[in-house]
Structures are given as C-alpha cells and as structure tokens.
Amino acid sequence: MDSNQSLFERAQRVIPGGVNSPVRAFRAVGGTPRFIARGQGAYLWDAQGQRYIDYIGSWGPMILGHGHPAVLAAVHAAVDDGLSFGAPTERETELAEAIIALVPSVEQLRFVSSGTEAGMSAIRLARGATGRAKIIKFEGCYHGHADALLVKAGSGLATFGHPTSAGVPPEVVRDTLVLEYNNLDQLEACFAEHGPALACAIIEPIAGNMNFVRASNAFMAKLRALCSAHGTLLVFDEVMTGFRVALGGAQSLYAAAIAGFAPDISVFGKVIGGGMPLAAFGGSRDVMAQLAPLGPVYQAGTLSGNPVATACGLATLHEIARPGFFDALSARTQALVAGLSAAAAQAGVPFVADSQGGMFGFFFAPELPQHYPAVLATDKARFNRFFHAMLARGVYLAPALYEAGFVSAAHSADDIAATLAAARQAFAEPA
Fold it and tell me: Which of 134, 270, 396, 415 is catalytic?
C-alpha cells in the first residue's frame, strides 16, 4: 500500500477526517492527501519519497521557500534561548517596529498566534471602539473560524447572516451583514440603511479563499468613503496578502491608486510568522488604546509574541525587504501565470489567471470572476482533473478550486519551466 494511503487511514482513526484543517483532506478534488515528510527550497517530498514543486507554500507563509538558511539560523538561536516565557521580550518590539515601518496605517499592533485570533480580535476592537454592534463582511472572504464570521450571503440586498457551520447559534451572527464582493449597489444600500449601527466592514482586499479575486479600485474607494462618512472602521484582512503581494501589503497598492487611502485596522498573519504560528492586528494609536490593559477591550494569549515565532518572522521580513526582492518575485509569478494562460490557449481550453506579487489564481472560465457566485459558476470538474494531472507530474497546487496559489523566492526559472511543461501535457488530456 502507498505510504500516503496507509498514513491517511491511520490518521483517520485518531483525527477527524484524518486532517487538522479540512482542505487538506482532498475532499474537494478526490483522492488521497499527500503526507509531507520534508520541504526544501521550492520542493516538498511526501511519505512515498515523491518530490513536488510546491505552490501551496504552507498556504502563504513560505515566501522564501522552505528551509531558508537565514531564517533557520534565527530560529535555532531563539530555540537555544528558550521556547516560551509568558513575558515581554525585546524581539516582539523589534518585529512590531519592522511591521509598522512598512505599513504607514499602523501605529501600534498586538501579536497573537493565528489569523483567526487576529480577525476575531479586530472585530471586537472595532465594536469596542465605536460602541456599535453590526459588521459587514463580504461573501467569499474568509476571516478565520470565529463564530460571528462563519456566515455567507443569502438572496436579497443585504442579508442578515445565517450560520454556515453547525454549533454557531443564529443570534451570534444576527449582527453580521453579508454583501456581494465588488457590488457597489449593495454596498451603498447597506450603508444607507444601517450606517449609524455599523462598527466595521472587514474585507480581504484580494480574496484568496475564492481562489484569487481582487477588489476593484472603484469598489475599494467607495467602501473607504462610506466607512469614513458613517464613522465605520475599515478592517483590512491582510493575513494572506500582507507582505505577500507587495512589501507594504495590498493596502499599499490601493494607496497608490486611491488618494488618501488607508484602512483603520489591519490584520496580518502567514508571512509575518515565516511559517510559525504568528499573527497580528494593528491600527492607529487611538484605536489600539482601546485594548487592555489601556482600555476596556479585552484580549490575551499565553503564546502571543512567542520568542521563536517572532525570530522566524523578523528574519523573514529582513529578507523580503531587500532591494529588488518583490520585483523578482512578481516577475517569476507573472511568468508562471502567462505561461499557464498560453498553454491553455494553445489547447483551446477556457482559462483565465491573475497574480499580484507572489500570489496567483486561475479559473477554467472565459473571464475572471468578480465575486463568489461567479467563482461557483467556473468549471470545477475541469479544475479537479487538472489538479490531479499536475500532481501526477510532480506539481503540487492547492487541492481546491477556491484557494489561491503562491510562488516563493526559491522557485527558479527551471521550476517554472517544468511546471509549464507539465501544464501543457495536462491541458492536452481529454476532458
């Protein structure tokens, strides 16, 4: 029996579904998940010894690739000093200073251990700072598995949230309004009806959990203007995009296109931890002063600001801040996306793709989707066949239509060429 299959059967006896995060189970694409034994550079090796070119990158954090020497050295040194103290360390301050230097909208921040924690805490902070209860989220945007955010839109203009997970009581999400991504009419109508009661609007500026869908400049400008006009805080969830699509995150791209643009609260994760459990949320000094021990909004965590995780994150930020890093990363990602598009066109396969920095996505569709219903209308069956065709050829893409992909600095021109050669063969397979 294949080692991956035997490990999966063993895992299912003691772990629900055999995995510790649902998408890893390959339920969306079928087949047996690969149990990873090690990673190095742009590659992963599974339990069977098969090597894959990795475009998951631990779902985003591994922007430098696996096992970067400078990052490993920093982590090893931190481990020698101690794993956890439950007390302040200088390195927490250093990492906070490094993030704040790169993100002008953030004057102070608080570290936590996961993106879910950071998103949940940002919502609580927004509610505490404004004294309001209602929040806006957008269909297809994922902000972690906190109860109030596990909702999706129904029919109608601005639907009050209904839980999309068992165990979430309806009353928990009654103040969550869900709107369609990139829909200006819904946005304006929602603020017209609920503006004085809205604590915040939380959004992924480039949604990576409906594959890769970016908010248009017009939509983001209107969202910023409406939030400002109604005293509603704009929360940017940059867990995925932060320090991945640009050195200043997605907000730096919108700031370049929209005069005076800045979010009120930002949420970070993934890259700032370099592969270790670390996330953060931050904003202006006035907003952050609402947090305990200064203010009435409580938030705490035993492992928050963990010394090993902050060492990993600080070393990662140091490397990606080097001159030319993002130019090179963007060029490599664009070469991948352009090559995939050309291969699909040659095979006569409907296919569209997009990228920003080291993040990319693609759809089997005639045009790029602008919102979640359009994503659902793309050819899922063809995506699943393509995924397995690529996996069989040693290319590891996200095992679900609804997940973005990631290129790292470790991906070489030869890796991209090998990926495109596999894709040409995969596209040529009969539908």
Answer: 270
